[in-house]
Write a structure and sequence with these properties.
By secondary structure, the protein is an alpha+beta fold. The chain has three helices and eleven strands, in the order H-E-E-E-E-E-E-H-H-E-E-E-E-E. It is globular.
Length: 177
């Protein structure tokens, strides 16, 4: 029995080292939980899981992870465009929003997500502030629902209308930094 425990501990340590080595040096990584609600005239979907947003050297990568730990989708945004990987498929487009809309039926503004997780509008686009903890930007309503003890956003809600009366709403819970 001790040998099995030792083997499992060694395997876990090796996986942790491998995972850490895959994250680019000097990358900004943020993790948390997400809840996604998509309503269209044809149907309604709810997805839940975890997310990992990694920013490095002008690139942004968003992993949407199932509750059991599998990668639901990975979107990578570079200066050359966006790549979406999911279900053994790989698709490319000029923007992450275009790609996600085409392939997943909804689009998140990946280029603005980092600012929103900081609780501020993205400085690259116009916005209107509704209150200290809410603003509108590019047809999205953003609300900081809860802050941690340090004042950093911990629970963020973002919603946007979709064509034909649909709605897209995502709630992000940030892990402590």
């Amino acid at each position: 029995m001790p040998s099995r425990r030792l083997l499992l501990s060694s395997l876990f340590a090796a996986l942790c080292v491998t995972a850490c080595s895959l994250t680019p040096q000097n990358a900004r990584v943020r993790r948390g939980k997400f809840s996604l609600f998509v309503k269209t005239p044809q149907d309604q979907r709810n997805e839940q899981g975890r997310y990992e947003l990694t920013e490095f050297a002008g690139n942004t990568q968003l992993d949407l992870i199932t509750p059991l730990g599998g990668v639901l989708a990975r979107v990578t945004l570079t200066e050359q465009g966006a790549v979406l990987e999911y279900s053994d498929k790989r698709s490319e487009a000029r923007s992450a929003e275009e790609l996600m809309q085409r392939e997943l039926g909804f689009a998140l503004p990946l280029s603005m997500l980092s600012s929103w997780l900081d609780g501020i509008p993205d400085p690259s686009f116009p916005f209107s502030r509704q209150s200290e903890d809410s603003f509108e930007q590019r047809d999205w309503g953003i609300s900081i629902r809860r802050r941690n003890a340090a004042g950093e956003p911990q629970l963020i809600s973002a919603s946007s209308p979709m064509p034909a009366g649909g709605l897209l709403r995502i709630t992000l819970t940030a892990e402590a930094r």
